[in-house]
Design goal:
homodimer; about 350 residues; alpha/beta; 434 Repressor (Amino-terminal Domain); Rossmann fold; 3 domains; six-stranded parallel beta sheet; six-stranded mixed beta sheet; 12 strands; about 15% strand; DNA-binding
DNA sequence: CTGAAAGCGCTTACAG
DNA sequence: CTGAAAGCGCTTACAG
C-alpha cells in the first residue's frame, strides 16, 4: 500500500539492494544512480519503514527510553531538555513514555513496552521502579538508571547531592541568624531524597548546637507539594509555641506554599515573618512575590549526564554508579538576615 | 542474542506459529500448550520484538503521534493527560516527540520520524506546521491535526473558541465597570489565536461603545509570555496618559506578569489598581497572590477530543474539521468591581 | 558499481 | 489443535 524501496527499484531499474545503499548513503554506488533514486523517492513520496529497517539491522544502542510522569509542576521538563540535547549530539534516539508516578503496574507496563522497542537503557525521571522492574530490565540487557532522583535500589543514578542540599540550605538560614528552622514537605521516613535532605538539615543544625524540636518537622502529603507548604503555615500558626522562624522547604512549590500561606493568613511575607528557602530553582522562584531563594539544581546537566552515562555504560547493565551533579544556592528575597 | 519465539518453540516442542498464537491469544490452541508456552516465555525472559511484529502485521491505525515542544510553562501537559487517557480507553498507542516550536526544520525532522513509525495521525500541540508538512502527511495518508491551537492552514483543529474567549473576557471586565481595557501578550497580526481573541476583544468593547486606543495594545514578544505582562506594566506606568484600568491578558502567564509588575512598581495589586484577567486556567491562577481570574480552557477535554477525532477521521486524511471546546470563566481576585 | 539471496522475528492464511 | 510456508520491508555480506 505505501511505497517501498521495491517501488523505487522498479521505477529506476535498479535492485532494492542498490536503492537501500543509496538511501542510506552506505557502500558504493554511482552518482548518477543516486540522483535517480533520490528523485524517484521524492517523486513517489517514499518514507522508510522503521520497523523493517530496525528488524533487518538491529541497531545496537540506538535508542534510549525515558519514563516520565505528569505532575502539576514538573521540573522534569528541564531534565528532558538536557536529555534531548545530549542525545542529539550523540546521535541517539529518545523514546519518552509516561507512567503514573508510584504505580508499579503502570511502570511495569511502560517498561515492557520499552523492552519491546529494544531500547538500550531506560531513564526513570523521578519515577521509582521497584526491584522487580530493575531486574527485568537487566535481564533484558537494558541499563536502568534513575535520574533526578535516587532510591535504595541497586541502580545507577544521576542527581544532586541531597545531603548537601539539606545541609547548605539549613546552613544558609543559620548564617542569616535563624535558629528555629522547620523542615517541610518531604518525608524523611519514606523516601530517600527526603532522608538525605533531612540528614543534611539536622547535621547543619547540630553544627550550630541546635536540636530540632519534633514540631519543626512538617511532612504534609510528603509529596514536596505546594499544598504541604500551605498546610505547614496553618499548622505553625495554630501552634505558636512551635515558634519556628524559618523553613527549609524541600521544593520550590512547597516554598511557594509557605509564602502564600503567610499571605492568606493576612500577614504577608516580610523580613521578620518567616524566612524560607526552597529547592529546585524552577521558574516559580522568580515569578513569586517575594522571589524565592532556592537551592538550584542543574537539571539540564543532570539530563545530559544521564544520557552520557547510559551511552557509556554500554552493555554493562549491572554497573552501578551514583553520580552527583553540583547545585547552586540562589538567594533571593525570602532569606533576609534575621532581624 | 535476545530470546525469540523460536527459542520458546524449541523449548516446548511446538512450532513458532503456535507460540505466536498463544502469546497473542489469537486462534485456537490447547490450554495445556498455552500453559507450557507461558511458562517457557517467563522462564526464558521473552519479550516481543515490536519491530518484527509491526512489520509482520502492520496494524492499521494503532499509534497516534503527538508533537510537543518544551516551554517554560506548559499547558500542554494537561492536554497530554487527556490524550493519554482517551488513547488508553480506545486502545491506541501514543508516540510523543518534541520539536522546537516555530522551527520548521525541526518540525519536519520530527514529522518524518513519525511517518517512518507508521502513525495514523499526528497531533500538533501548539506547534505550527507549515503547509508543506501538512501536505506531506496527507500524502503519506496520515491525518494531521492541530490541538489547542489553530492556524490559517487547511488542517483540522481542536481548540477553544478564541473569539469568544476574547469577547467574554472583555465583556466581564466591562460588566465590572472597566472601560479602558488593554490587550496584552498576543500579536493580533501574526498569529491566528491572537487575531481571534483581539477580534473578540474589540467586538465586546464596541458593544459598550468604547473605541480602543492604540496604546491599549501591548504585544511585547508576542509569545503570550510572563515577560510581556511585566513589560506592559512598565509601559503603562511610563505613559500615564494611557490610563488603562484593566487588562485582558492573553495567557495566565501574562496576567501574572501584570500582577507582579504592579508589585515590583511598589503598588501591589489592589481593587482600584488595575484589574486583570488571563487565559488558560493553569495552576498559576490559584498559586498567585492575588489569585488570577482566568478564561479557563478545558485542556483535558481538548486532548481527549483530539484523539477521538483522529481515530474517527480514519483515513479521511483530507477531512478538515474545526472543533471548538467550551471554556469557562473563573473569576478570582483580580477582577473586582471597579471602584 | 550492482544484484541475488538470505535473513531479521513475527504473523497469518492455508492445510491437515 | 498444530505446523509448514510465505511474507512483511529493509539490510548486508558475498559475488561478480
Amino acid at each position: 500500500m505505501s511505497v517501498t524501496i521495491k517501488d523505487i527499484a522498479a521505477a529506476v531499474g535498479l535492485s532494492t539492494a542498490s536503492v537501500s545503499r543509496i538511501l542510506n548513503g552506505r557502500g558504493r554506488y554511482s552518482a548518477a544512480s543516486a540522483k535517480r533514486v533520490q528523485a524517484a523517492a521524492a517523486e513517489l513520496g517514499y518514507f522508510k519503514n522503521r520497523s523493517a529497517a530496525d528488524l533487518a539491522s538491529p541497531q545496537q544502542r540506538r535508542t534510549i527510553g525515558v519514563i516520565n510522569y505528569l505532575a502539576a509542576t514538573n521540573a522534569n521538563d528541564q531534565v528532558i531538555q538536557g536529555i534531548l540535547a545530549e542525545a542529539r549530539e550523540r546521535d541517539v534516539e529518545v523514546t519518552i513514555m509516561y507512567a503514573q508516578r508510584d504505580n508499579q503496574a503502570s511502570i511495569t507496563r511502560v517498561v515492557k513496552s520499552m523492552i519491546e522497542r529494544q531500547v538500550f537503557a531506560v531513564l526513570f525521571l523521578s519515577v521509582r521502579p521497584d526491584q522487580t522492574v530493575v531486574d527485568t530490565l537487566r535481564q533484558a540487557r537494558i541499563y536502568p538508571q534513575e535520574v533526578a532522583s535516587a532510591s535504595d535500589l541497586n541502580i545507577s543514578s544521576v542527581s544532586s547531592d541531597d545531603f548537601q542540599i539539606g545541609y547548605q540550605a539549613t546552613d544558609l538560614l543559620l548564617r542569616r541568624g535563624y535558629r528555629r528552622i522547620a523542615f517541610v514537605g518531604a518525608d524523611p521516613q519514606k523516601d530517600i531524597i527526603g532522608r538525605y535532605r533531612y540528614a543534611g538539615y539536622t547535621a547543619a543544625l547540630q553544627a550550630y548546637d541546635v536540636t530540632p524540636a519534633k514540631e519543626w518537622l512538617f511532612i504534609g502529603d510528603g509529596q514536596y507539594s505546594y499544598h504541604s507548604g500551605l498546610a505547614a503555615v496553618t499548622d505553625f500558626s495554630e501552634h505558636p509555641q512551635t515558634a519556628v522562624d524559618a523553613v527549609f522547604a524541600t521544593s520550590d512549590d512547597t516554598a511557594l506554599g509557605i509564602v502564600n500561606g503567610l499571605y492568606d493568613l493576612g500577614r504577608p511575607f516580610s523580613p521578620g515573618s518567616l524566612a524560607v528557602i526552597g529547592v529546585d530553582g524552577s521558574s516559580t522562584c522568580t515569578r513569586a512575590r517575594p522571589q524565592l531563594s532556592s537551592m538550584t539544581q542543574s537539571f539540564d546537566l543532570i539530563g545530559r549526564t544521564a544520557v552520557a552515562e547510559a551511552v557509556h555504560a554500554g552493555d554493562q547493565v549491572d554497573q552501578i554508579k551514583r553520580i552527583e551533579i553540583p547545585f547552586t544556592i540562589e538567594e533571593r528575597q525570602t532569606t533576609p538576615t534575621k532581624k
